[in-house]
């Protein structure tokens, strides 16, 4: 018996005698049947094994799976929590260091604060000594006396550069009063030496000069300074005058500040100061009136150079800081003053407010001494140039239209 016949007999014995096929189909079917039976065997074995476990065992396995998953999640949360704790510790450490540094700086600043404030105030005072001086104020707080950093300033409230002005409607007619380009405020420009040609002169028998002050102040003193003289005060300078505080805008109600003040020749001081003896502590004034009753030489014309009204205020006068552009302007103005008189006179704006705000007094004091209140010459020259160019432009336009036709 050969190998094929033995295979057939085995197949017939396994599946019955009814199965008939040739040798090739028999071999293929045998292999498929073996594979199918092997898969079925493993499947049946797996099903039997699964069925062999009870419900309690499956529940325990499921609970164990949940416990493992929860443990893994907790381990991840523990890592994140640990990282957050480390981060918070670092932030707390930095905040503690910053607080310690801030505390040290605060202690140092509290010790040095008053000294720094005093130094800054002293610097401001040194820059403009003619305007104001400061005094420390003692203040009692909770039964303890201490120096406050806020001082009281004694200022010249009649200074033009601070904002004071002459009330021309309530003053006598003067040589400086003009309909266009009024120069009356020259009597209020706080110069070290007022120029003679800028004096406020009046031919009234008892001329009156009314001044709107730059600030409301508690008045402490009045002063008068004539232009420079030696040994004897020039004729026409005020000799006897009174100063009154105006309680209303029209000066109908007044209170005397200084009476019978005398500008003396034997004093030898250009500026002579007259303290105000008594004045209500709570009263503030914003307007004063000078009444000149007699002049030196008993001449027809009285010429007033410079008046000052000193008083106390808690407001620090504002002053613009000089910039490089302003300093260059002052330097070029000084050059034109000495080298280009025509350019300085007609081509440069040089009114007193601008020169003061630009800080030109220290660079070009000669410019500041002669500065006008309103620069009429340069303004008029500018208007003339503008008019000439306008006429030329109109003439050229007329000629162009004529040639087109």
UniProtKB/TrEMBL annotation:
Supply the InterPro entries for this chain: SUN1-5, SUN_dom
* Cell compartment(s), UniProt: Membrane
Q: Where exactly are the transmembrane stretches of this chain?
A: 379-400
Q: Which GO terms describe its molecular function?
A: protein-membrane adaptor activity
Q: Name one GO cellular component term.
A: meiotic nuclear membrane microtubule tethering complex
Say if the entry is tagged with keyword Glycoprotein.
Answer: no
Residue ranges of every copy of the SUN domain listed in the record: 113-314
Question: What coarse category fits the chief subcellular location reported for this protein?
Answer: membrane
Q: Which UniProt keywords apply?
A: Membrane, Transmembrane, Transmembrane helix
Keyword Methyltransferase carried by entry: no
Q: Output this protein's name.
A: SUN domain-containing protein
Its source organism is Caenorhabditis tropicalis
- Phylogenetic classification of the source organism: Eukaryota, Metazoa, Ecdysozoa, Nematoda, Chromadorea
